[in-house]
Amino acid sequence: MSSTDPLTSNVRPATDSLITVRIIKSFPYRNVKNHIIKDIDLKSTTPKQLLDRIINVINTTGGLRPYRTVEYDTIKIYTKAHGSKSMNLVINFENDDEWVLVSPTITGNDKSLWELGIQNETELSLFKWDDYVEYKANPVEKW
Length: 143
What we know:
This protein is of the alpha+beta class. The chain starts with 7 loop residues before the first helix and ends in a 6-residue tail after the last helix. The chain has a 5-stranded mixed sheet. A hairpin with a 4-residue loop joins strand 1 (about 15-25) and strand 2 (about 30-40). The chain is about 20% helix and about 25% strand. It contains 4 helices and 5 strands, in the order αββαβαββα. The protein is globular. It has a single domain (about 10-135), classed as Ubiquitin-like (UB roll) (Roll).
């Protein structure tokens, strides 16, 4: 790859992007399943619409059946394309104020994913907010 080649995250347009959603069932037990969403329009999709879409995928996909027992209510950025990843393999504890896109206190209807800084190849985490707060206060792994 030469220095003139574009980054893979910049090759696809924002109206036809690819993102990875990390569905987190349990923080202490590190139960995480990745779901790749292809062909998403980041400029017209809001975080709330994405939350509803992922919950529908969980409820209709046989391979995600074990993940149906959690009431997911939060989407947070795990890592941006070509950015550094968190040392924690389950969740990124940093930037809660800026990187939480939808939660029990954030509606996620005001701006599009694109306006919130989501680009092609961004990784997002889907989880239950109360479980996150509890795990963040005492991040002990149980396996």
